[in-house]
Amino acid sequence: MKTHDGSTASRRRVLGGIASGVPLALAGCLGGGAGGDGEGSISPVSLDGEHACDQCGMIVRDHPGPVGQVHFADDEPEGGRPAQFCSSVCTYTYRFDAEDGGRDPLVTFLTDYSLVDQEVFEEGSDVTFSSHVESSAFSRTTELTVVAGSDVVGSMGPELVPFGEEADVEAFVAEYGGEPMDAEAVDRGTLEGL
């Protein structure tokens, strides 16, 4: 009886160990990304200097509002750097077009206004937020909520304003209006609705 109980316990331990290891093994196989680097190892880069928007050609740092970058599996046609953008709208537009063309976006980053001390500028009826191009100002879209249809505009006009903290989303909506949504739920219809 003792031996039977001992062997059952050992079998349970072995099966439990195998069962707990399967998700980790699958995560390693499925989450590796291109070249096995893994999406988790991709970090945002600074967009200071004379970096031009890959969607519209404007110099990223020279314009107000959120900016973005998309890291692709093939690094082309960006030549080993992420695609870079002067607005959230340019970021999404380029990414959607690239996906339609068969490219694989690994990670999309946007300015996270929960991470920065933004300045607010008012010109007539337009309200804009300062632009932040340093690498520490970005978060992955998987971690962000964007506000669509607010009174705040960006470099390309109506904008999606991203935040990583729910309290910041609520405060922003209370002051500037708009509809919050998961940044990963943005589609072409969202952009057309702006």
Detailed description of the structure:
The chain folds into 2 domains: 2-30; 39-193, no CATH class. The protein contains 4 helices and 11 strands; from the N terminus they run H-E-E-H-E-E-E-E-E-E-E-E-H-E-H. The model is unreliable at 1-37 (pLDDT under 50). By secondary structure, the chain is of the alpha+beta class.
What is the subunit arrangement here? Answer: single chain
Residue share in helix = 25-40%
Please give the count of helices. 4
Radius of gyration: 22 Å
Sketch the topology as an H/E string, one letter per element: HEEHEEEEEEEEHEH
- The chain-level structural class is alpha+beta
* Domain count: 2
Give the strand order of the largest sheet, numbering strands 1, 2, ... along the chain: 2-1-3-6
Low-confidence stretches: 1-37
Estimate the mean pLDDT confidence: 84
Query: Can you summarize the main beta sheet?
Result: 4 strands, antiparallel
Q: How far apart are the first and last residues' alpha carbons, in Å?
A: 72 Å
The best one-word shape is globular
Approximate strand percentage: 15-25%
* Strands, total number: 11
SSE layout and pairings?
Layout: H1 2-30, E1 68-72, E2 83-85, H2 88-100, E3 105-111, E4 120-123, E5 126-129, E6 138-140, E7 145-148, E8 152-154, E9 157-158, E10 161-163, H3 166-176, E11 179-182, H4 188-193
Parallel strand pairs: 5-8
Antiparallel strand pairs: 1-2, 1-3, 3-6, 4-5, 7-10, 7-11, 8-9
